[in-house]
Write a structure and sequence with these properties.
Layout lengths: L51 H11 L7 H7 L19 E3 L2 E3 L5 H15 L7 H11 L2 H15 L2 H6 L13 E16 L3 E15 L8 E14 L2 E11 L13 H10 L8
Antiparallel strand pairs: 1-2, 3-4, 4-5, 5-6
Length: 279
């Protein structure tokens, strides 16, 4: 994955995934008064990151050694089920949590898909910008060996002053006074493209919200669409991530809707919680 040559100045994290985000049309309030019917070709360095969590994590995987590279191949050699549309099963995915993240998924395809969707939410959250919470998330989502070997890389990426400045955050990872940092992933659907007893390959299609909400924000919350393919393995009676790849889209056509005001966006982020995702 690559951020692309035209985005290398955005924190210096080339080679981690290409993202494109669009600012509202020029004129008026950064949120209110902007129409989504037009598509501006200009891109801002502070909004280029998109689903920043997954892209930064990819830095570590892009430099991984050969020890954990067999995962993808082994998962692909398992029985490959016919893919089908994501449909509700009526079964609750889990009843327990670890570090605030759903855990203890069933040892089947549905469990693997639910794990991938819920892990996407955790990895795409603003909590990843807090060192203590990041450590909890990484230890919960990844296999123990991968978490141990990549934690230092992730800490380095998330604490980079240049990177934090590019997305509008302070050196401590906090938003400026009067602004709210928004980083959310909302899964739309999942499918298992390979499955065996202890390994699974799951694709998660999702939309993401990323930016700073507030009347003085120069990096308003924007929407992006991605699909991430997760390689999962069954470890300690649960599904854990060993690797992933991200790509843009599928991206729907945007409707001609007026962007919300900064106050409305901040209120929505504070009042609307997330979900536990099932197959």
């Amino acid at each position: 994955m690559s951020l692309g040559d035209d985005h290398q100045s955005s924190g210096g994290y080339g080679g981690t995934g290409q993202t494109r985000t669009r600012l509202p049309d020029n004129g008026g309030d950064a949120y209110g008064g902007a129409r989504r019917s037009g598509r501006s070709s200009s891109r801002s360095l502070v909004t280029v990151v998109g689903v920043v969590v997954l892209l930064i994590a990819a830095i570590a995987f892009a430099n991984r050694g050969g020890d954990d590279s067999a995962t993808s191949g082994e998962a692909a050699t398992g029985d490959k089920p016919h893919t089908s549309a994501t449909a509700p099963s009526g079964d609750r995915p889990v009843t327990t949590k670890a570090a605030g993240i759903p855990a203890g998924f069933p040892h089947d395809q549905q469990g693997a898909q639910s794990a991938a969707a819920n892990y996407s939410v955790a990895l795409g959250s603003a909590d990843m910008f807090n060192k203590a919470r990041r450590h909890d998330i990484v230890s919960t989502v990844y296999t123990p060996d991968v978490a141990a070997s990549r934690q230092a890389d992730l800490d380095g990426a998330y604490s980079s002053p240049e990177f934090l400045a590019n997305i509008g955050l302070g050196k401590d990872g906090n938003a400026p006074s009067g602004q709210t940092f928004v980083s959310r992933v909302i899964p739309v659907g999942t499918k298992a493209t390979a499955f065996s007893t202890d390994r699974a390959t799951v694709e998660v299609w999702y939309t993401s919200l990323f930016g700073l909400s507030g009347s003085k924000s120069t990096n308003p919350v924007t929407e992006s669409w991605y699909t991430t393919t997760y390689e999962l393995t069954w470890v300690d009676n649960d599904w854990k991530v060993t690797d992933f790849q991200q790509k843009d889209g599928p991206v729907p056509v945007g409707r001609d809707q007026k962007a919300s005001t900064a106050d409305d966006m901040t209120k929505a982020v504070e009042e609307y919680g997330g979900f536990t995702y099932a197959r």
